[in-house]
Amino acid sequence: MKMRLAGGVLTVIEVDKLQFEVIKSWGKMKYSKKDKSLSGIADIELLDKLNEMVQLPAYIEKHRRELHEVRDAVDRERTNPDPKALVHFPVRLPLYQHQVRGANMALLTFGWVAPGGGT
Predict the structure, then answer these.
(1) Residue 111, domain extent
(2) pTM of the predicted structure, to 2 decimals
(3) pLDDT tens, position by position, for the chain (119 residues)?
(4) Is the domain of 68 the same as that of 28?
(5) How many domains does the chain have?
(6) Which among 86, 90, 68 has a CA at the least distance from the CA of 77?
(7) Residues 84 and 105 in one domain
(8) How would you class 12 by CB atoms within 10 Å of its CB: exposed for 0-12, middle for 13-18, buried for 19 or more?
């Protein structure tokens, strides 16, 4: 099995029949007859399932770990009892805690702030 990750899309070629049927049953990848390949959005769920099936190439495994770091940071922010703004928000009135929490989660999700706290 060969894989390529480009622009958030994972493409898989040269899969055997059993692997093809299993991957197709997930409903996360589409088959292209022209290229004889499967392709789909490289989200956490798809990468985790593929990781259980085969060993991922190093750069795809790195991407999978980065997605897990972001998800874990968003979960920590979601349950943070006293959230602090990760950046200065351009608003006049002070934000409520749930607004700060939501804005921080959006910053983390869209990659505008690193999970470790850097911008």
Answers:
(1) 57-119
(2) 0.85
(3) 999 999 999 999 999 999 999 999 999 999 999 999 999 999 999 999 999 999 999 999 999 999 999 999 999 999 999 999 999 999 999 999 999 999 999 999 999 999 876 55
(4) no
(5) 2
(6) 86
(7) yes
(8) buried
The Cα 5–Cα 64 span in angstroms is 11
Which DSSP state fits 33? Answer: T
Whole-number pLDDT of residue 30: 96
- Short-list 39, 31, 32, CA closest to 3: 39
CA angle 37, 63, 115 (to 5 degrees): 150
Strand partners, 30: 39
- Pair 24, 31: CB distance under 8 Å: yes
Q: Which residue has the tokens 């088959």?
A: 31
* Cα–Cα distance, 45 to 117 (Å, whole number): 25
